[in-house]
């Protein structure tokens, strides 16, 4: 094994872990062992010392097995062991002021507050052979506390007041803690997994709270050492749960039968016919109707993941932007019509595009399902394989659409005019006259000049790529899933004719850290061409943004 030097030693070990072919999500579990440990550098050296094989390879079999055993030890659900001692219950309820220590929520008939233990009252039963591994992960101080003091905590130190659902969510790794000065602490929530507990949806991602002053209450607060240990194991526990959910799925074939296809055809034809008649209504009336529906939709469905998009009643969505970006909505309107006309890709139906002096509005139908980002962590191997095939088929259909606009220009948006693209915007100095629109470009050399980075004069894309129709923003929010299958692709405002590598490098540009998604992207585009050189050029340029 080659010698590593700090400070890059941890990163190099992380890369070695990622080079090992492991079943999902075993690689993620080992990454959390490294990155969430109390001293990652020490953990990196431990992994090298324990798992070194020939060359730069790692034999992770026994480490992974022991790590999974350790995770299972700390998967403890306090909601199943509520205190029955009325004296303790009364004392803890008063100390915690009748509020859930995790969520800050009060008592609910359907989700009552409970006084539950942080750790098993008899302590954790940890095999001696796992002590070294545990010490590496949580540190010697917490290890000594756990082995020597945890079992002797007073009832007040080992109990707190939480909602029943919150206690169960804690056992599933949905909560983490950071402790500040004095009595303050911060609670963070996780969104890993397909079906989030209802209580997670009721609380913010980050919430600051405060324990009661024990001098005033005369009752000890929950022991923060216990909470530190539970917090450090949160990510591994959550990912173990995601793996369990994926493993429990049964292989299934999801197909659109004749009835489904007929219903989709008729409903879309009906919506199109109604939209054509509706567009005869004066623009001001339509805009007022959309504003009213948006207000109603916000109260019925809440906000969406985008500030500009609102779900409406009747299976509709409304995208609203300033008229400054009207051209991007016009491009999306045209793109949806083009894709529906030439392909079988499931995309929203564009129903209306209207503007006033201030805002522009795009009305579309919905695509069933949830964003891929909501379910990617629990997709089975079979579902991932199917998704790869579905995306490849979509991209092949998209690339086959002929360019019939602006023949004098090679690279344009769907309308044959200037392109709107976040990669171009971020990589360029703002020009008020140009705004956020670039091109159209006569040829690829013209386009490559726009991609140049001044500090890197020798880092330039090559020319000669095939120019194809691209989505331009393939990410975890825009790919929709239903019952484990691709159900559609949304958000087409950046669609246009670009070099054939563009969708691939843009997918890496938008999402740089989600390893499973990037592996899916690499597999999808492997059938369409080798774009490693183009990604290498783009990656060098991105570092200067």
From TrEMBL:
Lineage: Eukaryota, Fungi, Dikarya, Ascomycota, Pezizomycotina
Residue ranges of domain Aminoglycoside phosphotransferase in the record: 318-508
CDD domains per UniProt: APH_ChoK_like (cd05120)
Protein name: Aminoglycoside phosphotransferase domain-containing protein
Domain of life: Eukaryota
Pfam families in alphabetical order: APH (PF01636)
Gene3D superfamilies in the cross-refs: 3.90.1200.10
